[in-house]
Hints:
By secondary structure, the protein is of the alpha+beta class. It has helices spanning about 1-25, 35-70, 95-100, 105-110, 170-175, 245-250, 250-275, 300-315, 330-335, 400-405; strands at about 130, 175-180, 185-195, 225-235, 235-245, 295, 325, 355, 360-365, 370-375, 380-385, 390-395, 405-420, 425-430. Strands 1, 2, 5, 11, 12 and 13 form a 6-stranded mixed beta sheet that branches. Helix 1 (about 1-25) runs antiparallel to helix 2 (about 35-70).
Amino acid sequence: MKKSVELKEKLRALLLQARDIAAKAESEDRDFTTEEREQVQTAMKGAKAVKEELKAVEGDEALRAEIMSLGAGLEIRSQQRGPASALQGTRGQTIGERFCTDPAWQEWLKHVAPAGAINDKSRVQSPAVQFKSFFPERKELITGLSDVSAGAFVQPDYTGIYEPIGRYPLTLRQLISVRQTGSDTVEFVRQTKQVTEAEPTPEANVKVYTGATGEIEGRKPQGAMRFEKVTETVKTIAVWVAATKRALSDASQIRGIIDQELREDLADELENQLLNGDGIGENFTGLAQQPGTLIQAFNTDILRTTRQALTTLAVIGRATPSAFLFHPADWETVELIQDANNRYYWAGPLNQGPPRLWGVPVVTSFHIAQGSAWLGDWRKAVLWDREQATLSVTDSHEDFFVRNIVAFLAEMRAAFGLIRPQAFINVELA
């Protein structure tokens, strides 16, 4: 469907181009110029070619629709082990499934494995397959959905069961702003002083003010602002794993490698960098290392301290918080607080709802250091994502060629910064 829409738009553009040239000549009551005639002929020739291609594509789509209608209620799968039929499209597919069905990957695989299996003596260097969205959209859990093997690549009895060790749930990317960049550096302007000079001003009573008693100058105060330019550098996060050449012939194994290992490890390291990166070398300058953020010292107990943090953020930071960020162990401590009669402050374990503290939503992250929490307007933290995460496969690494081993490489590039550091406050919990 997407291909036919694109062809229709292309056809429309070509016809409009020819029509506009003809309309111009007609309005000026003249024949085409030599250049106009060539342009019209080129446009019409291109339109005829596009129309023929559109006819073929629409025929394919009609055939697909007929196949799907005849197979309604049935799960159509290919005869080989692997993902569901390509007729299902890309919606709902994991990154691994999209990689395995990508036209560039499929075309390359036909050349290196014409019989469905890769010869152990073949050289391997796949094209880099790019993904506009390597991670799920905001508010979706970053988790692998594949149920296949990515570990033991040769199994005499293939069970289809794959149980990863497990990774920490990731939340921070869902809180912060995510924007795009096509450059290696990101620059933005941050205000360091705002206008605070406004005051009531009486009307002048003299033309030339001398400072004499009774004279009113009536001069309006001048405001002042100051700004600073901040530059953040795009960093690269990458990881690779090894597999046998036989794994390349098994789409299910590739999906497992990509979804359960490469993608999740990139996402896990990204969240760690967003919080804890030290800014040295290729590390992000994470939230904990950003200059200009506020600090709320511990005072008596957690509840008093977190409430005072709200006031500090409002008075000094002039910000409205969107969420608290706790380590799971620290949030457990908060939820287990009881009053003098051993009653839980939050109505106990059987009355749980969306977690909130002082009316502010609470989220948890395993990457935040225990003993402190963050409160802030998380929209003021920005991840500039180049959205060009790539996956590629090669045997050109060390002695992999002679050992029939290949490397799966995944990498992404992004920059991170706080456009307003005072919108965040680090809360000491002990």
